Amino acid sequence: MSKKQKIMMLVLTLVTLIGVLAVFFFLPDEIPLHFGVKGASSVASKYFLLAFVPVPAILYWAICRKMK
Q1: What is the pTM of this model?
Q2: What residue spans of the chain are helical by DSSP H?
């Protein structure tokens, strides 16, 4: 992985983290989740969103890896 790609992954992670933290304190304690074909519903803690912070960087890494 090149230095440019590493910097891009870091930037994506930081931008996502800043975005999540900007709205984090305004969210209710429980967030509704809807998934599945039949529309199954559930609720999760707002801290669950923090698990998705690295997702954009991981997707970027996967796409760049495929392009080689």
Answers
A1: 0.69
A2: 3-24, 55-67
User: Residue 59 has which token pair?
Assistant: 């997707």
Tokens found for residue 7: 């910097």
**Structural domain span for residue 55:** 3-35+43-67
pLDDT along the chain (68 residues), means of 10: 84 89 91 82 88 84 79
Domain count, the chain: 1
Handedness of CA 66, 5, 15, 43 (dihedral sign): positive
Q: Which of 32, 53, 59, 34 is nearest to 44 (CA)?
A: 32
